[in-house]
């Protein structure tokens, strides 16, 4: 492991990274929120089906 090379590559990536614009942030937040709601809905429906199945 060559530490100076690793550190320089990390610094290069951090210099290329930029703060997202407000519009980009809102779009990512909407998509992430929709994914969370979808997974939660699927989990809730599975719970309801398992709860009401005779067993």
Summarize the structure.
The protein has helices at 3-16, 22-52. With 55 residues, it is mostly helical. The protein is elongated, with a radius of gyration of 22 Å.
Question: What's the SSE blueprint?
Answer:
Elements: H1 3-16, H2 22-52
Characterize the structure shown.
The chain is mostly helical and 55 residues long. The chain is 82% helix and 0% strand. It contains 2 helices and no strands. The model has no long low-confidence stretch (mean pLDDT 89).
Shape: elongated
* Order of helical and strand elements: HH
Cα distance, first to last residue?
Answer: 58 Å
Number of strands: 0
The number of helices is 2
* Oligomeric status: single chain
Task: List the keywords.
2 helices; mainly alpha; single chain; 55 residues; 0% strand
